[in-house]
Structures are given as structure tokens and as C-alpha cells.
Design brief:
The protein is mainly beta. The chain is built from one helix and eleven strands; from the N terminus they run ββββββαβββββ. The strands form two sheets. Strands 3-4-5-6-7-9-10 form a seven-stranded mixed β-barrel. Strands 1-2 form a two-stranded antiparallel ribbon.
């Protein structure tokens, strides 16, 4: 199928590339299907693009690129919802806010996106009692 995207124009995707957010994303409860597209060929940043809304796309990246010690425990409800059987099936992404200059860019570490890459199910999880914030500077934390 062909979808219209914010950063890549019209793009051909396959049904099996779609990630399903059963409950949508906070603030976008009607947006349930997304696809991951590379931002550019050699960039660690990727685009989480809505399948139905062209202008709805988030720049995301693995939080571990910038924060080596980042970690959290998933609650049992999320594990069941995402049908997670093994930690190897899980990918974690942080939504980034890109600023100029780049050193001012931030990552939302309090609400990571957890994806079961085997089942292509995802959820944005809100961490409670966490030392993390919605706007962690990434400029100084890159390795």
C-alpha cells in the first residue's frame, strides 16, 4: 500500500511493517497504525509515521544511544497487552524534540514507546516514580 508521509512523501509500505498501538498514543487515541521509516540512511534517528495521517510523524531513537544506563521495569498489564514473551522481542524508543542548535534537543524518557517487534504491537508507557523527565537533554549525553 502507498501512504503519504511527513518526511518521505508518498511511500510504499507492506502490511507487515505496520505497528499497532491498540489504544493509540496519548493525545492521538484514534491513531492506531504506524510504520517505522529511516530518517536518513546513516542516521540513528527514525520516523514513527502514522499510516492514516500524513502530518503525524515523530522523530524517535533508541534512548540507549544517549543514555547508556537508561532502564525501567514493564508492568504486567503492558507485558500482556503487547504479548511479550521474551526481552529479545522488545524495542524501546524515545520521542525526540529536535531543536536548533542540535545540542538543545531533548528525549522524552518518562514515556518511552515499547514495541514487540515479533508481534508488531506497541504502547507508549508512562513511567511512575521515575527519575526521568519528558525533556532530557541529549546533546551532552551522546557517546
Amino acid at each position: 500500500m502507498i501512504i503519504k508521509t511527513k518526511y518521505h512523501g508518498e511511500t510504499q509500505i507492506q502490511e507487515e511493517q505496520m505497528i499497532v498501538f491498540e489504544n493509540g498514543l496519548p493525545g492521538f487515541t484514534d491513531e492506531k497504525k504506524f510504520v517505522i521509516l529511516p530518517l536518513s540512511e546513516d542516521s540513528p534517528f527514525i520516523v514513527l509515521q502514522s499510516v492514516q495521517t500524513e502530518e503525524l510523524a515523530f522523530i524517535v531513537a533508541s534512548p540507549f544511544i544517549f543514555f547508556k544506563d537508561y532502564g525501567f521495569d514493564l508492568d504486567e498489564t503492558t507485558v500482556e497487552l503487547l504479548e511479550i514473551e521474551s526481552a529479545e522481542d522488545v524495542e524501546v524508543m524515545a520521542i525526540l524534540t529536535i531543536e536548533e542548535p542540535f545540542e538543545k534537543s531533548t528525549a522524552n524518557l518518562i514515556a518511552p514507546i515499547v514495541v514487540n517487534r515479533k508481534k508488531m504491537l506497541a504502547k507508549q508507557v508512562t513511567l511512575h516514580d521515575s527519575p526521568y523527565q519528558t525533556k532530557h537533554p541529549i546533546g551532552g549525553g551522546a557517546c
